[in-house]
Give the backbone structure.
Amino acid sequence: MSQATRVPLENVILSNQDKFSSITYPFGIFVSIYDYTKGGRVLFCIISMYMIFASIILPIMKCYNSKKEKNKYFHEPTSSIQYFYKVLNSPPLIEELRNIAIKEFSVENVLFWENYQVLQKMIYRYQIEFKRAERIGNPKLISQYDFEGYYQQQLQTFSVSSMDDYSYDPNMPVPREIMPYYISFYQTFIDSMGPASVNISGATVKHIYSEMCTYPTIGMFDIAKNEIVEMMYSSIFPILLDKIENNYIMLLLMEFIINLFDE
């Protein structure tokens, strides 16, 4: 090798040190963090505290705020459970409740109510068609009615239709033609592995499961319905009232809608 191309040894060493430091630089940051956090224990404690806050403390705070809002309207007529049922039977206000429930991560409760109403309409439709088949003289004609088409129609457009002749007997056995829709409702909302499982008591779940397996009746979801309504009444309804408190036009609109669907 010629004298002109020979590189000093110290330059080679410095060059290699620069390359090595550029490679180890990112890893050095993690090593420093590891040392400062005492082997990562501090980071683990911070993450654990956040999980406790998000899973326990935050829901308690939300529950407290909901009860506080509920108590604020306690003496007003619009805060009664009877008035809330009128809200639940008003499709435009149900839409408002659904939007609130989405933000509160409890939309499954509103979906439960809507689908429960659909089941009631299915039973009502069955009674109408069964009476019609009896008048013709052949009750077996009930099996020819398109219950699936009626069911899909009700799912697409939630509405409150008149059911003046609806003789609701909760102990009435679920008709064979309607049973698939009750099973679907159970698998969606009652089963703990369902896609929209609601938070009801274990005793209620056991009762429904037992009745589903032995003697299913059209009223077997009524206890769960009462729990869900109470839950929505205590959680998302106060938020709706607070939303319309300072909006006089919206308050008048709500009164108009309720009176319209209450007639």
